[in-house]
Amino acid sequence: DLQQRVQKVLDNAIKKNKDKNVTQGAIVVLAKDGAILAMSGGVDYNTSQFNRAVQALRQPGSAFKTFVYLAALQEKMKPNDKLEDMPITIGKWKPANISKKYYGTVSMTEAYVRSLNLATVYLGQKISPEKIIRTAKAIGITTDIKKTPSMVLGTSEVRVLDMAAAYATIANDGDLVKPYAVKEVYSKDGYQIYYHENLEPQKVAKRKAVRELTTMREKVVEKGTGTKAKPNGFAAGKTGTSQDYRDAWFVGFTKDYTVAVWFGNDDNSSMKGVSGGNLPAETWKKVV
Asked: How far is Cα 43 from Cα 27, in angstroms, rounded to an integer?
């Protein structure tokens, strides 16, 4: 029932936004232990069997900032520590905020909640790229992360399922969550030939840092870039938009579920103004 409802939500979202050049999407719903409760890898399986939830590699944009800020908090930085949101040039690269403005001295929390690119680049310069990559890999990202200055803004491609797993690990107080699709298998005569056993708790992120980050992520939904995702009750999440609106994400969790939502196009063409804070956030709310 949940699978059918999730597929219907995705189909309707894409159907209603074709004028914005939205042709594909993917949704993953995980239980607290990593059980895949629903997975939609696109629209119209008869036309394309490509599963965008597990096979597509897409840029996460600002949804990757979660790993940067987690790495910083694990290095004993505090949510109220100050960052500089000012113009910065690294080689030939000149990053900018989406608003094309800069905000001077801001707290880590404000930079995360408002998804400020310049402050995040500044933070990335304070933490070694290796630590950020290690943090992302430890909590669930399995794809290659390129060590470039722009990495902190989510330019390395990821899988939707991995993003769900990584955020589920944060929801799980820093204990690793590994997604699984099969709970048990029986033979024709009823003999059990497989049963999924949950992992022994494996701490991969510091609990204090994870809880501080979760508080920051709550504020994203309450008053930041993700207000359109706000359901009834607790929710914590992060928006993500890649360059030229090629990818739009909302990934977050409630007390019981972690949900990752992505929209884009197979040919990597741009959507028209679709960012993490609108269509993905609205779709996430419907799923939750």
From this structure: 11
